[in-house]
Each structure stands twice: as structure tokens, then as C-alpha cells.
């Protein structure tokens, strides 16, 4: 499959379909049921990748794990304050997972980058493993990106929760969405600029 087409399909599966499934299911089955519905496209995508391409999609697995953690949070009796947010704070849990992975030998962004490279050409993941061990600058840049995305996602969810607790319900939902978009755009632009700087230095 052409890389650009596969990337577009991956975005559709990992972002568009889970979001659509969540919003369609929410009025009918409630929050927990909607979270379960949002995981169906991810499970299907992971299964197809494993059976057809012999490839494990790290991004889908990460999103699926974040949904699972959200299920645990919202199924507990201690999540009343978060229920008021009306949206699962999945990205905040993902951000926390990024930060917790920093002390590991290979943080989460390493696996996301490795998964992306494996889509471009067979064997690229092995080349990336060698580069990780032989280029300290690459390892540092991966850890910096892990830290920035982790902090950014956690701060985004703190800001959205503050908006929910400070505004009326309709305004809160709209402003919270704008805050989320602004943070994601800022993180994406920073990643592109930072990656360009790292490549230029090397």
C-alpha cells in the first residue's frame, strides 16, 4: 500500500472511526457503552494488521490501552468529578503514560516512530533499532518528544477540566473542544519544527 494512503487510513481508523462510534453510541448506551463501541474499530484494525501484514500497530494499541484505562476510571466510584467533563479524558491518560515511560530503556514515542517506519519499507524497523543504539542524539530527541507530548497532553486535559468546571454546560463543551484543538495543533507544529532541527543538526 502507498505510504500516504496507509497513513490516511490509519488516521481514519485511529481517530475518526473511534470518535464517530463514541458519539453515535453515547445517547443510546451511555458513557461506558460508548467507550466500548469506540474500541471496536481499533480491535478490527489491529487484527487485520496482524493477519494480513504481520505488523503490530503501536498507535492503535496505545489508543486502545488509553480507552481501557478510561473504562477503569469511569467504572470506579471515584470518577464523579471527571464524569462532569462529558468526554473521556483519554488524552490525559495517554500523556501520563508518555511521562511514565520516560525512565524506561525505550519510551513510548520510540515504538510509535518504529511502527511508522515499518510501514514505509520492510526492514526499516531493524534499521531504526540500530540507529537507536548507535546515535545518542536520536535517543535524546525521542525522549524530548515523549516528555513534551506527555506534558502537553496532561496540561490540555487539566485546562479542559477547568473549563468544564467554570462555564455553563453548552459553552464549556465548545470552549473545551477549542482548547483541545489548539493544544494538538501546537504540539504538531512543534514536532515538525523540532524534527527538522534535529535532522539539520545531524
UniProtKB/TrEMBL annotation:
<keyword id="KW-1133">Transmembrane helix</keyword>
<keyword id="KW-0812">Transmembrane</keyword>
<keyword id="KW-0472">Membrane</keyword>
<feature type="transmembrane region" description="Helical">
    <location>
        <begin position="58"/>
        <end position="77"/>
    </location>
</feature>
<feature type="transmembrane region" description="Helical">
    <location>
        <begin position="175"/>
        <end position="194"/>
    </location>
</feature>
<feature type="transmembrane region" description="Helical">
    <location>
        <begin position="89"/>
        <end position="113"/>
    </location>
</feature>
<feature type="transmembrane region" description="Helical">
    <location>
        <begin position="144"/>
        <end position="163"/>
    </location>
</feature>
<feature type="transmembrane region" description="Helical">
    <location>
        <begin position="31"/>
        <end position="51"/>
    </location>
</feature>
<feature type="transmembrane region" description="Helical">
    <location>
        <begin position="7"/>
        <end position="25"/>
    </location>
</feature>
<protein>
    <recommendedName>
        <fullName>Intracellular septation protein A</fullName>
    </recommendedName>
</protein>
